[in-house]
Amino acid sequence: MKKTKVHVIPHTHWDREWYFTSSRSTVYLVKHLSEVLEALESNEGFNYYLMDAQTSLIEDYLKYRPEDEDRIKALVKAKRLMTGPWYTQTDQLVISQESVTRNLLYGTRYAKELGHSMEIGYVPDAFGQGGNMPQIYKNFGINRFLFWRGVADNRLKQTEFTWEGDDGTQMLSNQIPFGYYHGGNIPEDVKDIESYVEDFIGRLEAKASTKHVYFPNGLDQAPLRKNLPEIINTFNELDEKREYVLHSPETFFDELEKDVADLPVIKGELTEGKHSRLHKSIFSTRADLKQSNNEIENFLANVLEPILSISYSLGNPYPHRELEEIWKLMFENAAHDSIGGCNSDTTNRDVGYRYKLADEKSKNLLDLHMRLVSERIPYQHDLNFTLFNPLPYKRSGVVKVALYIPEENFSVKDYNGNTIPYSIEKKVELTDYVLKQTIHLNPSKKIYTPEKVFLAEILLYVTNVNGLGYDSFYLDLADNEEQQTSNVSSKKQIENEFFEISLAENNTLTITDKLTKKSYHDQMIFIENGDDGDSYNYSPPREDLLVFSTDAECVQVEYVVSDVEEHLEFTLKMNVPYNLEERANKNADREFVLKAKVALRKDEELIRVEVEMDNQVLSHRLCVQFNTEIASKFSTADQLFGTVTRPVYLPEMAVWEEEKWEEAPISIEPMQSFVSLHHSTSVATVFTEGVREYEIVGESYDTIQLTLFRTFSHMGKTDLLYRPGRASGETIVETPDAQLLGSIKATFAYSIKNETTFDEAEIAKVAKEYLSPMAYYQFSDFLNGRMIYVYRDEEKTNDRSYSLLQLENMNSVISTIKKAEDSDNYIVRVFNPFTERTSTIDETLKENGKFVMLDETTQAEKVKTLKPYQFSTILIGQ
N or C, which end of the chain is more exposed by having fewer CB within 10 Å? Predict the structure, then answer.
């Protein structure tokens, strides 16, 4: 009988931060990795070591030990020190598709510079696996997958299987069934080895379908087991039934591939928490940090990189290094503990600071490059501004800008002389602040200087702004047209071409679809309830009290109208419990004030909502509900490069306690930017700029519930209603910052489309446009000074209107447009947003582009259309 071959894999799982900070982690990393290098070079038989597949760890180490670079390169090239393909061990369900892609891009590139990138999708601890990951992995030359969390024995009885992504891509996969730390504590005394082997190795043997067993030797920040080769020799001497070898994940898979046959196929997302906790409601943990992450990710991929491409096409340098620094700040925060928010308060402050840096750097980079373009435009007026469209097709609609304006009356015009409808939302005088900073580099040049200067928030209605380009506009003082402002209206409803909305007596919205004349009542109900959970899991208190906005006091209502937008503002005062004790006693005597703004813009099929909440109570959750009146068994949301259809209720909820699941299989789910309920003639969708968490509720499962925030008191708690037993994380670590006391803001939108299907409604395109606002830059001589850094006069070589690329004839959705890493070409990444039909690719891309993998260099198959869940990366020149 063939012996079981136990592949002992020495490794560490290195959290860059958790209940400890990255500063502490890095100090110990230097010690740890120096010992690893010494062991690999000096200890006979110590041939491999897995450094958690994160190249950031190598980068961190070499900041302090640059003299060891050659040693590391030699070991990585020999495939003995294993690193890559990740930059950091990223989460896959909370962060964006471009973040996942760039993490692998930077991770594999750096690993290859060192000598070799491990060609395995190694994910030892992320909270679930995205359904489109096999396709993403394959684009980086990765055809093997090694992981722990996400598959239960009701779907998989063995460790080896074929994982099939949503698009049909397959890869050989091996689960580490009892966790990456299963072999972290190996006894060395002979009398303890026999029982240890039969237990720890025996359990792995029972799960394996071949004679190959993956046995990880390591755990979190584990010290190197210097005598591991000797321990393995002892095991071989004492255990005649098995052969023990010190291997790497790659050598393990090399041998496994020769023996596997007739593997079961597991499709789509891996998000089952029966044997390993998935912490499904972690999507709303630390809503403030999640919102920062989501806003910056959207800004980088949807706005900054396309506009940097426009700037580059006009002769300005493309800031690869600066972008890499920003993305790496985001990757540090995308590591599974960091992005989860399941950290100490001190660590989460570090996370927040990195978001601050990334936000400031990215916005200033955009400002600089819009200026580099604008300062070369031959404006012919004194008060000029330029709108930049980051999407590669012409766009019309309402744009929000902040401009410095004079006290005089004016009209807004484009450079073809067309008058642009606008409305000033609010303004503040800043005359002294602005004019005292003006600098005249050339005093001989006469410039226009207004007597008074106001900073104004203005809504503009523009038409046909150039795709992936810009158009110029100016304030015309000669018209002497009275400044257009929004006005409080006496009518008690707002409307545009598509909807009428009014506030009902019970503080809900009544929404009427003008196309069908159908009215939807009791919309946008806010529900406040207790949260007895921790940094990992939302869990309702065993004695809860739900508070609804329908019972709140409405203390103020305003209807505001203009030619470009009408909006409704109202303030609600809800009485809620102060803490969990008060909630159990049904004592709701604390004020929770909520201010909502509901807006309808000209010619837009979105109902935009901004909510500001004053949170002064503890351990609770706030959600908002929209009753779609579409009873459904499934929801449709966006995931990495496509959509995903999920059941609104998991039948395992009826048996999870009996089957002793690690956590309840609740139907709280993640999204990228939208979630829809739909049938053959109607589509209702919630879009989010903030927390990416939803649940379908209601007796008929017809109501979309979006989580706005949740708060809690501790990093870890025991015996939760939704997660019985031990705590996740540390129970001793209190997290007062996680109570989010103070102002909390949320932004989302709602859409109802009747007489259409989900695919026909092109919801993903709407979401892309919602999250890709046009950017703007004001260019006026009186603004030149310390406020923006003074600039000199430049040769006026740019046109007043410009387009780099127009892709008008496709229904695939843009993921991003950016300059290629290694050439003067541009990367255009598109994906199929539909559930059932193929999507088209513009002829310009098909005829002139080169199809490449996500690594941007390997040639890919040229396709004319994309099937559902498919994406393509296309390299195209100017």
Answer: N
- Dist. CA 832–CA 868, nearest whole Å: 5
**Residue type present at position 874:** I
The closest alpha carbon to 605, from 814, 452, 398, belongs to: 398
Residue 190, H or E segment: helix 190-196
- pTM for this model (two decimals): 0.97
**Alpha carbons 396 and 485: distance in angstroms, whole number:** 21
- List the beta bridge partners of residue 710: 621
Is the CA virtual torsion 524, 527, 533, 538 positive or negative? negative
How are beta strands 525-530 and 547-548 bridged, if at all?
Answer: antiparallel
3-class DSSP assignment, residue 859: strand
Cα separation, 192 vs 210, whole angstroms: 27
Nearest to 693 by CA among 677, 680, 710, 679: 710
Give Cα 370 to chain centroid, integer Å. Answer: 25
Return d(Cα 341, Cα 347) in angstroms, integer: 9
Q: How many residues does the chain have?
A: 878
Residues in Cβ contact with 857 at an 8 Å cutoff, skipping those fewer than 6 apart: 822
For 330, the 3-state DSSP assignment is helix
Q: What is the pLDDT of residue 444?
A: 85
Distance (Å) of CA 601 to CA 159, 566, 577: 53, 7, 37
- Greatest extent of the chain over all pairs of C-alpha atoms, in Å: 96
SS3 15: coil
Q: Which residues fall within 8 angstroms of residue 586, CB to CB, at 6 or more apart?
A: 545, 577
Cβ-in-10-Å burial (0-12, 13-18, 19+) of 73 comes to middle
Beta bridge partners of 745: 612
Side chain identity, residue 463: T
Q: Residue 739: name the closest of 709, 713, 708 by CA.
A: 713
- Can the peptide bond before residue 85 be classed as cis, meaning omega within 30 degrees of 0? yes
10 Å CB burial of residue 478 (0-12, 13-18, 19+) is exposed
Which pLDDT score is estimated for 1? 45
d(C-alpha 283, C-alpha 672), whole Å = 11
What pLDDT does 767 receive?
98
Task: Report the first-to-last Cα separation within the chain, whole angstroms.
Answer: 64
In terms of Cα–Cα distance, which of 303, 334, 271, 326 is closest to 100?
334
Please give the Cα distance from 765 to 217 (Å, whole number).
Answer: 47
Phi-psi region of 111 (alpha: psi -120 to 50; beta: other; left: phi over 0): alpha
Mean pLDDT, contiguous 10-residue spans, the chain (878 residues): 90 95 95 98 97 98 98 98 97 95 98 98 97 98 97 94 97 97 95 95 96 97 94 96 97 97 96 94 97 98 98 98 98 94 97 98 98 96 97 98 96 95 96 91 88 97 98 92 90 96 98 97 98 98 98 97 97 98 98 98 98 98 98 97 96 94 96 97 96 97 98 97 95 97 98 96 98 97 86 93 96 98 96 97 96 97 96 93
Tell me how far apart the alpha carbons of residues 810 and 768 are, in angstroms, rounded to a whole number: 14
Asked if residues 21 and 346 have their Cβ atoms less than 8 Å apart, the reply is yes
Tell me if 507 sits within 8 A of 572, measured CB to CB: yes
In the 8-state DSSP scheme, what is residue 483? P
pLDDT of residue 553: 98
Distance, in Å, from the CA atom of 373 to the CA atom of 799, rounded to the nearest integer, reads 10
Question: 335: closest CA among 296, 275, 293?
Answer: 293
Query: 469 — phi, psi (to 5°)?
Result: -170, -155
- d(CA 137, CA 53) in angstroms, rounded, equals 14
Nearest to 681 by CA among 612, 618, 754: 754
What pLDDT, on a 0 to 100 scale, did the predictor assign at position 255? 97
| Burial grade of 260 (CB within 10 A; 0-12, 13-18, 19 or more) | middle
Nearest-angstrom CA–CA distance, 705 and 687: 11
